[in-house]
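I am still getting used to backbone structure tokens and would like to learn alongside you. To get us started, please write out a protein record for me. Once you have written the record down, we can walk along the chain together.
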Amino acid sequence: METHLNGIRLHYEDVGAGPALLLLHAFPLSGAMWRDQVDWLRGEYRLIVPDLRGFGGSDAPPGPATMEQQADDMAALLEQLGVDRAVVVGLSMGGYIAFAFWRRHADKVAALCLADTKAGADSDEGRAGREANARLAEEQGANAIAEKMIPSLVAAGASQAVRDELRAMIGANSPDGIAAALRGMALRPDSTPDLASISVPTLLIVGEADALTPPAEATKINMGVAGRPTYVAVLPDVGHLSAMEAPEAFSIALADFLVQLGGW
């Protein structure tokens, strides 16, 4: 499906029926990364799965794609679809957008699932690395980003099938969209001060072998969320893209959390 909002054409899937979930994908992938979770949950829930701006079938306008801009895209999408509140599920970059969504559109959040992500902003070294990767994408294309990033996106024991799927998904994206997201992530603020304001049920999922946002980052988020308990699932022998590398374990953790919520 396609819609036009905030000056762009945005591609999304809207499947199933019931309480709504908004699934925000990781960098540098697309909504297709959630295929297994959609199959697992569509019988009981409505799954709204966008390609974030610059990825998949969505437009890649010029300039950095900030987390705030992408959060506003998602709020506009929910409004167009008549969804008042959703459980917001974000993995990696999707988690950064979920934090921005909470700051700007908290009334639309029924609960949060933050997977393989962190609250802190980039260090100077991290911002420099993102700019180097943005230039790599612009100069050598999406496949160069795939070759550079895949070793850090999954655990050493990840299957060749997962690696091949990642390579195809990354390679299908626009180099300009990849660069825009990298520059947008580099601009994101520190979300740590926002943790104490989170007043909805929150699930944290992280791969035990995640080298980019390790379990210690989930612990920091867990310790920072005040006012109500959070739930933490650490998936053994799994890397950064836990939803793809261990789809069944991820889906079970999410489904168990949703059962505790009831309707919303």
Observations:
- The beta strands are 2-5, 8-16, 20-24, 46-50, 86-91, 109-115, 202-207, 230-235.
- The longest helix spans residues 124-140.
- The chain has a mean pLDDT of 96.
